[in-house]
Amino acid sequence: MKGFLGFLKPQNMSLFTDYYELTMCASYFDNKNFEPATFDLFIRRLPENRSYFLFAGLEEALQYLHNIEFTDEHLSYLKKQGFSQDFLDYLGGFKFTGDVWAVPEGTVAFPNEPLIRVTAPIIEAQLLETFLLNTINLQTMIATKASRVVHAAKGKSVIEFGLRREHGIDAGMKAARSSYIAGCQGTSNVLAGAAYGIPVFGTMAHSFIMSYPKEIDAFRAFAKTFPDKSTLLIDTYDEMAGAEKAVIVAKELEAQGYKLGGVRLDSGDLTKTSKKIRKLLDAKDLGYVKIFVSDDLDEFKIAQLLNEGAKIDSFGVGTKMGTSADRPYLDVIYKLCETMAANGSFSPIMKLSQDKITLPGRKQVYRFKESDGNIKKDVIALANEHANGEPLLVKVMEKGTLTYRLPTLEQIRAEAFENLSKLPEEYKALTNAPTYPVELSQKLQNLIETTKTQLTKNEINNGVQ
Questions:
Q1: Which of 131, 188, 343, 381 has its CA 20 to 30 A from that of 276?
Q2: Same-domain check for residues 134 and 255
Q3: Which residues pair with residue 367 across a beta bridge?
Q4: 338 and 454 housed in the same domain
């Protein structure tokens, strides 16, 4: 099946942009500025309690670049906003014609490293900014958060349960996909299951239990419908009384040749209660029945539960993962790094604003590894440099045509697993993790200094005319 953009029709997404992108493009057009330029998309700094990013969202970004067009309806709306007919005619034939380099989805990345590099006529490259930032911000943010949750679970399964609290349909779909990339076993989101092929999971709500006169009647009704995959919610009234009734239903299922899948806790002292329930289940020869918990979980609470010895087999994690509640955005940036000079050659450019300096020129990121395969350090270098490390950016589009074979979601998930497995444990600490070393090559450092000097000199000499 098509991904989520297949439902939203990516060719209709061209107005998903900030107004000032269109006003800048209109001015570029009016002043006949169609020269190529290069933009870098990167994340400026790490949020608190983060030591890495897990890059996600590239597939959707490439679908957008491949399909973007302005329909008659779009142009009619823009005409009402005062844009000239000549500019609207240009947009009517708009097609992205540039080159794009990017790191693959599932790659572990760090601050200031180019994640996507776009070289195209400046009017085209500028128009992409808002969509790319929006797409990469959300999916990388959620993938990073989910990877922390999965790591905290120490091999126990994590299910993404956040749909009802995530910020709309689009965010709900992206959260399910990004969490799966990061290692979650599945999602409660049925549309994400259909669109992406992600395994779907669910149990029951307290309302289902409360709709029956007796709790055990609800358990029996559900087990009758799903005899081979029932997980019973046992804490509607009293968790231990609910567990006792779950044991009765489990034995009834055994007599029919089935096995109860699990019991679920959604409240209370999860450590203490899970220990008591595990003891009960084991005493009744029901060691195969899993204990599944939810209850406002995140990586910190999961780590605490396991450190306390909680007898939990799997976790349903919703709001705090699906919204990245503790750090709900990334400082993701899309900045100009080179323009075409009058002589037809590319000229490096950089921003000199205090605390927001950017890196000039086209760049590549090289990754160096230890002898055991663990990653050791990254070096940001100029694109035409050669280093002994592994280059991370690969060409994904050339002259507007997709040149990159999009991996399957399972392949992206495997890439993320491999990347995270090679990230040393100290960088996965939930708090106070050390800073991973990212260096600048000497040639890039030299270019920074010469570009700074030239830009400063130009501003002083030109003054205000």
A1: 188
A2: no
A3: 378, 390
A4: yes
Across residues 395-413, what is the average pLDDT?
97
Q: How far is CA 143 from the centre of its chain?
A: 4
Contact 397, 62 (CB under 8 A): yes
Does 445 lie in the same domain as 377? yes
Position 171 in a domain: no
Alpha carbon dihedral 301, 302, 304, 307, in 10-degree steps, equals 180
Q: What is the pLDDT of residue 319?
A: 96
Q: Is 44 part of a structural domain of the chain?
A: yes
Using the predicted structure, report yes or no on whether residue 7 has a pLDDT greater than 90. Answer: no
More confident site: 463 or 93: 93
The answer to whether residues 419 and 109 touch, using CB atoms and an 8 Å cutoff, is: no
Cα 25–chain centre separation: 29
What are the φ/ψ torsions at residue 127 (nearest 5 degrees)?
-65, -20
Residue 169 lies in a domain: no
The four Cα atoms 60, 103, 200, 203 give a dihedral, to 10 degrees, of -110
- For a pLDDT cut of 90, what percent of the chain falls above it? 91
pLDDT at 5 over 60: no
Q: For residue 306, what is the enclosing H or E element?
A: helix 299-307
Query: In terms of domains, do 450 and 333 share one?
Result: yes
CA angle 421, 423, 426 (to 5 degrees): 120
What is the structure's pLDDT at 464? 47
